[in-house]
Each structure stands twice: as structure tokens, then as C-alpha cells.
Design a protein that fits this description.
Strand content of chain A: under 5%
CATH architecture of the largest domain in chain B: Orthogonal Bundle
Oligomer: heterodimer
CATH class of the largest domain in chain B: Mainly Alpha
CATH superfamily of the largest domain in chain B: Cytochrome c-like domain
Shape of chain A: globular
Distance between the termini of chain B: 55 Å
Helix content of chain A: 55-70%
CATH topology of the largest domain in chain B: Cytochrome Bc1 Complex, Chain D, domain 2
Number of domains of chain A: 1
Order of helices and strands of chain B: HHHHHHHHHHH
Number of helices of chain A: 16
Largest interface: A-B, 101 and 88 residues
Radius of gyration of chain B: 24 Å
Largest sheet of chain A: 2 strands, antiparallel
Number of helices of chain B: 11
Helix content of chain B: 40-55%
Structural class of chain B: mainly alpha
CATH class of chain A: Mainly Alpha
Chain lengths: 485, 250
């Protein structure tokens, strides 16, 4: 089986050159990742507290669960994950193409534009300015700003590819490209709205059509922002971290094209047992189950790349983070298709099971991959060694224990409530006719979730501290520093 | 691997960024087109229910408050066709009931109960008190109070702009309905104020809580009435799929 060993830029013998590297932009995106990661997770912990203890809503319009939840989801998806992906791409793309980024101006416009969008989201969402579509809550003027910044990034990305000095595009680039293209299509189509005022607009779709378009978007935002670009980063940073070639080139081709084709169909699994026509629901189920194969293709290619490097799992925190990230990717991409089966969905839907599923993907896969990548990049772009390996290892254990507490609590809570909703007594009457009974039953799980989330946030703060100390110990650049300007 | 043995896909796809991008774009487009486009053709889309009529201006304003406060984060508007759900909430939701919902508010998590059939379930005063202090009507509730709704007032200019926008999008409002938005809102609000006064609550028709109550009391009532009429055989029209029995669930 051909591997990338001989000709890939990820080959262990590939050399690094600083000629084509713009480390300043990578540094900015790294810092933004850490800052927004901490903010997004902190809001998550506040939400967890609000569900366990309602007075934490503080009695203010701006701090209720209903307004803060979109802030949490947008912060972790677009601010934390977004900045992490961009940091990884600006680090790896020039190395993979042996070409500097197409335009430094566009790189910086991308960075500052993206941060401005995040700040405007953090202001508007607590004000209650929202489109209500999940993960597409931001109001139309911000949507236009997102489109502009995204196009700038796309020009920078494809411009770099057009000038690349390595003809063959390495697998990581395919995955980055699928994100750039798909997110453009999703964002535009799902945000076609007619403004009524400067802050409010109405979708051109209504009812079930609006619902289908939204979940086509929502599911594929997960697919092409939280999955494919992270897989691309895995294909670059994992082999680099363990000094091993990617296990199978052929597998990467098959699972890439399968993922790109199949993912987009799965949206209707968010609308099972709804007024959406049955044929559309069935298509969604069928493709969701099919999605297991290409997802596990990626997982296997990742795990098998670790062949011959498993001894480093004991000593290297980066390898620990990758091993757990890929394992959670496999776990949640198994759980997802199962939850798409109508019978299982009838129990899991509307419950915390879904919340647990999302977090095994977000905390387990995306978060752990982000930490592995950050700990790899930081010493290299600041040209020093990591402040503390043992602190990174502590971070790893806190995060892992935090995820397990979170997910087990949500599984328990979800299945408990799902079963209580449908329980009937001998006379065929609802056993828990008062909805409140099924809510109060969940409180212990909500406190456990709060502990799990707090552990994960603590790990994130440790990561930030570790990176801060690393930066402060970094040698001053020999040439006139760009950062000092 | 030598150049001579190079696979076709390395040459034609992975070596050419434009071609690769084109095939990726085609690959990600097919599924969405197949699933979304047919909803615009009559045969494959949810059948509209003729008795379902657009929201009034006051109800739509209430709906916008519902959106603003993120009620959808905790409350679904989607009764699934299971006995346990129809027993708890009422008739299961038909796709045709949502035709005037912009944006849709089906929701994805029930931290609180479903609200699709909340219209007419409780008196206006219940909702007024529930938003002021959820635990006064629902002991043990984890919902936060929404006291500002009882103080803040409706922006009629804003509501008129909303009606005009929805009309442009195809909601069958007449020009008179759009231009007469403020008067219509006050008239409908006055009825709610009167009903609240009957429970000893004093408020005015320009308060946000009045709009929210109007919306909640309307929710799911058109569909429920249509389905009830159909069951008793009074239906003047056929609605196709809308009355088909559900597939066995659970």
C-alpha cells in the first residue's frame, strides 16, 4: 500500500524553512484561540450552573440562559474552533506548499475581521439580537461581515495554492479546501433573509422548509467546521508529532470523497418525527448511517498512524491529546449514526443525550485536537520549549476526566428524562403527567455536568498559563520584530 | 513511487487545485439540492392546511419577543406522533401548520415542556404571572423570571416594518393591514388587558407581555381546530398528507 512516507512534505525528513513562514499571523490566531476558548467555556460553565440553580440567571435580560446559550455555542464553534483552525492552516499550508501565504494584508484582514465579528457577536447576542437559527443566530449585518471576511480568507487560501511550489496537494489541504468551499455555500444559503430593521430580518424560507435549510446548515457546520478541517489538521500535525508517515494514502482518498459526498445529506436527522416529508427524513437517516464508514476511515487512519509510536503515549502530552481526540472522534461518529435511527431518536431527541453527544465531539474531538496542535505549534513559532510538560499532562488529565463526567452525566440525564416522558401506568395514563417531575429528576446530573465542565475549563486556563509563560521566556527575535511595531 | 507509476488521481485531481475544488463543490452540492429543492414542488412538500392563517401584528410581535428571549432554547414547538406526546400535549404537529413561521421555532431541546399546543390551555393571567415569577404557577420550575416584559413597551414603528417585510416575503397581509398595524395591535391588546383586569391585573396594551400572551394563546390553535373539524367530518377541504395517521412510533 502506498504511503506518504517517500514523497510527502510530512515525511520526517522534510526540512523547515523560515523563508515562507509568517509566524506573526500564526501567533495572533493562537492567542485568540486561547482567549476565546476560555471565554466560550466559561459561558458554558455559567449555563450549566443556571440549569442546576436558576438564580444564576441573575434576573437581568442580558444574562438569561435563553440569550447566553447562543453566545456559548457561537464562541466555542466560531471563536475557539475557528481561530484554532486558522492558526493551524496558517502554520501548515505554507509548509505543505513551500510557499508563503498569498497576501499578508489578507491574512491580517482575516484575523482582525474575524475578531471584530466575534466581539460584535458577544455584544449582540446578550442584547437579544438574533435570527434564532442554531449556530446561525448572528444578525444580518454581521452575516455580511462574515461573508466578506470568509471570501478574503478563501482568496488568500486559493491564491496560495495557485502559487504553490509543491505540485501534489497533501491530504490536509483537501480537507481545508472542503471547509472553505462548503462553509461559503452553507453560510450564504442559510442566511438569505429580508431585513425589516437594522437588527432584525426574516428568512425567505418558512416553516418546514426553513427548518430543513437550517438543519442542512447546522449539521454541516458540524461537518465542515468541526470535522473536516480538524481532520486536515490531524493529517498534518499527527504525523509531525510522532514522526511517522500517515498510515494509508488510499484510505485518506476514499474517506475524504465519501465524507464530502455523504455528510451533506444527513441534516434531516435533526427533524425525525416532524412535519418534514417522510422521504426527506428517510434520506437523512440512510446517509447518517452511511456516514459511519468514512468517519471511521478517518479515525482508523489517525490511530494507525500511531503504529510504532505508542510508547510515546506514556511520555508525550501531545500524543496523549491526539490519542484521546481520535478516540472521541470514533466514539461520537458511532453514536451519531445510532441516534439517527428513528427508534433510538424517538428516545434521545429533545433530551440531554444530544447535549452529551455534541460535547463528546466538541470537548473530546475538537478540544483535545486543538490542545495537541497548540502544544505542538507554540514552542515552534515562539522558538523555545514549552514552559512545562508536566502542566500540559495535568491539563490532559483534567480535560479527560472532565469530559467523562460531562458525557456520563448527560447520557444518564437524557435517558432518564426520555424514559420518564414516555412512561405509562397500567391504565395507559402518563406516569409523570407533570413535566416538572422529569426536570427535577435531572438535578444531580446537572451538578455533575457542572463539575465536569469546570474541570475542562480549568485545564483550558492551565493551557493559557502554560502558553503565556512559554511566550514570556521566548528569545527576542534577532531581526527587527514585527510584533514590536 | 516514481513519476511513471503516478496514479491518475494524483495527476488530475490532487495536482490541480481548481479541478479538485470543482469536484469538491459538486460533491457537497448534490445532497442539499436533492433534499431542499423538492420542497418547492407541490407533490413532495408538506400540504398546507387551509385553516391556518397568518399571525396578527400583535402575535407576530409576541413571536419576535419569544425569539429575542431565546425561549426556543428550552421549549420546542413540535409534538411528535407518539401516544405519550399527544397525551401530554395534544395533536401531533403537521408540517402544514408552520407555513407562516418565519423563522421556524421547532426547537431541539425540551428543558421545559413543548409549547405547540399551549394556545388556550391556560388563562391570560396564568401567562402574566408565569413570566413574572415562574414558580408561582409552576412549583419547582427552573425557568428564570422575565419581569422586564411587564415594563417594556412595544415599538409600533418596528412592528409595522415587520409586517411590511413579511408581506414582501409572501405572507398574505393586505396593504390596509400593514398600514393599520398600530391600531390593530392596540385593539387586540385591549382585549387581553380586559381579560387580565378580570383577574385583578392592571396593565396597558402597549406592554411587551401583552404581545407575548397574544402569541402564546394563538400557538397551535389553528391546526388544532382544523384537525378537530376534520375528525367530526366538517372539513370543507381535503388536506392530503396532513391528516394521514402517523407511522407507529416508539
Amino acid at each position: 500500500m502506498p504511503t506518504l512516507e517517500t514523497q510527502s512534505p510530512v515525511s520526517p525528513v522534510a526540512e523547515e524553512s523560515s523563508v515562507y513562514m509568517d509566524h506573526a499571523i500564526v501567533k495572533k490566531f493562537i492567542i485568540a484561540t486561547v482567549v476565546w476558548g476560555a471565554v466560550g467555556m466559561l459561558v458554558g460553565v455559567i449555563l450549566a450552573l443556571q440549569l442546576a440553580w436558576w438564580p444564576a440567571n441573575l434576573g437581568l435580560p442580558y444574562t438569561t440562559f435563553g440569550r447566553l446559550r447562543p453566545l456559548h455555542t457561537n464562541a466555542v464553534i466560531f471563536a475557539f474552533t475557528g481561530n484554532f483552525i486558522f492558526a493551524g492552516i496558517y502554520y501548515s499550508l505554507p509548509r505543505l506548499t513551500k510557499t508563503e501565504m498569498f497576501s499578508k494584508v489578507l491574512s491580517n484582514f482575516h484575523f482582525w475581521g474575524w475578531q471584530a465579528i466575534i466581539v460584535s457577536a458577544a455584544i449582540t447576542l446578550p442584547m437579544g439580537l438574533t435570527q434564532t437559527h442554531e449556530y446561525a443566530e448572528l444578525i444580518w449585518p454581521i452575516d455580511i461581515a462574515i461573508a466578506v471576511v470568509w471570501v478574503a480568507f478563501a482568496i488568500n487560501f486559493f491564491g496560495t495554492l495557485a502559487q504553490r511550489k509543491v505540485k501534489h496537494m497533501y491530504v490536509a489541504i483537501w480537507f481545508y479546501m472542503s471547509m472553505v468551499i462548503t462553509i461559503t455555500v452553507l453560510h450564504v444559503v442559510n442566511n438569505l433573509q429580508l431585513p425589516a430593521t437594522f437588527t432584525r430580518s426574516y428568512p425567505i424560507y418558512s416553516g418546514m422548509t426553513d427548518a430543513l435549510v437550517q438543519w442542512w446548515y447546522g449539521h454541516n457546520a458540524v461537518g465542515f467546521l468541526l470535522t473536516t478541517p480538524i481532520l486536515g489538521l490531524m493529517y498534518y500535525f499527527l504525523p509531525k508529532s510522532v514522526n511517522r508517515p500517515v498510515y494509508s494514502y488510499r484510505l485518506s482518498i476514499i474517506h475524504f470523497w465519501a465524507l464530502v459526498f455523504i455528510y451533506i445529506w444527513a441534516g434531516p436527522h435533526h427533524l425525525l418525527w416532524s412535519g418534514l416529508p417522510d422521504w426527506a427524513q428517510t434520506l437523512g437517516v440512510a446517509f447518517s448511517i452511511a456516514l459511519l464508514a468514512p468517519s471511521w476511515g478517518g479515525m482508523l487512519n489517525g490511530l494507525l498512524t500511531l503504529r510504532g509510536a505508542w510508547d510515546r503515549l506514556r511520555t508525550d502530552p501531545i500524543v496523549k491529546f491526539w490519542a484521546v481526540a481520535i478516540s472521541f472522534y470514533g466514539m461520537s461518529t458511532f453514536e451519531g449514526p445510532m441516534m439517527s435511527i428513528r427508534a433510538i431518536n424517538s428516545l434521545s431527541h429533545f433530551t440531554d443525550w444530544t447535549i452529551g453527544h455534541v460535547h463528546s465531539g466538541a470537548l473530546g474531538w475538537v478540544g483535545m485536537a486543538a490542545f495537541a496542535t497548540l502544544y505542538y505549534m507554540v514552542p515552534r513559532v515562539w522558538k523555545t520549549k514549552l514552559h512545562s510538560e508536566s502542566l500540559a499532562t495535568t491539563h490532559f488529565w483534567l480535560a479527560t476526566i472532565g469530559i467523562v463526567l460531562y458525557i456520563v452525566a448527560m447520557w444518564s440525564s437524557g435517558i432518564t428524562q426520555g424514559l420518564m416522558w414516555r412512561a405509562v401506568d397500567d391504565g395507559g395514563q402518563l406516569q409523570y403527567g407533570n413535566f416538572m417531575d422529569t426536570v427535577l429528576q435531572l438535578m444531580p446530573f446537572y451538578w455533575i455536568r457542572l463539575v465536569g465542565g469546570t474541570l475542562y475549563l480549568t485545564g483550558m486556563l492551565m493551557c493559557g498559563f502554560n502558553i503565556l509563560k512559554t511566550i514570556s521566556a521566548a528569545p527576542a527575535p534577532a531581526v527587527a520584530p514585527a510584533a514590536a511595531k | 513511487m516514481s513519476e511513471a507509476k503516478e496514479h491518475w488521481h494524483r495527476r488530475l485531481l490532487e495536482g490541480k487545485s481548481g479541478v479538485f475544488a470543482t469536484f469538491t463543490a459538486i460533491g457537497i452540492s448534490i445532497g442539499g439540492l436533492v433534499e431542499i429543492v423538492p420542497l418547492y414542488t407541490i407533490a413532495a412538500s408538506p400540504s398546507p392546511i387551509v385553516e391556518v392563517t397568518p399571525y396578527t401584528a400583535l402575535e407576530q410581535a409576541g413571536r419576535d419577543i419569544y425569539s429575542r428571549e431565546g425561549c426556543v432554547q428550552c421549549h420546542s414547538q413540535w409534538v411528535r406522533p407518539f401516544r405519550s406526546e399527544t397525551q401530554r400535549y395534544g395533536p401531533w404537529s403537521r408540517g402544514g401548520e408552520y407555513v407562516y413561521d418565519r423563522p421556524f421555532l421547532l426547537g431541539s431541546r425540551r428543558i421545559g415542556p413543548d409549547l405547540q399546543r399551549i394556545g388556550g390551555k391556560y388563562p391570560d393571567a396564568w401567562h402574566y404571572e408565569h413570566m413574572r415569577d415562574p414558580r408561582s404557577t409552576s412549583p419547582g420550575s427552573i425557568m428564570p423570571p422575565y419581569t422586564w416584559l411587564h415594563e417594556d413597551t412595544i415599538d409600533y414603528e418596528d412592528a409595522t416594518a415587520t409586517m411590511a417585510t413579511l408581506q414582501t416575503l409572501g405572507v398574505p397581509y393586505t396593504d390596509e393591514e400593514v398600514s393599520g398595524t398600530p391600531e390593530a395591535m392596540m385593539a387586540q391588546g385591549d382585549k387581553i388587558v380586559k381579560s387580565l383586569a378580570g383577574s385583578g391585573i392592571t396593565t396597558t396594551s402597549d406592554k411587551e407581555i401583552v404581545a407575548l400572551i397574544a402569541y402564546l394563546q394563538r400557538l397551535g390553535t389553528d391546526g388544532r381546530a382544523a384537525l378537530a373539524a376534520r375528525e367530526s367530518g366538517d372539513a370543507a377541504t381535503t388536506v392530503g398528507d396532513a391528516t394521514a395517521p402517523p407511522t407507529e412510533g416508539e
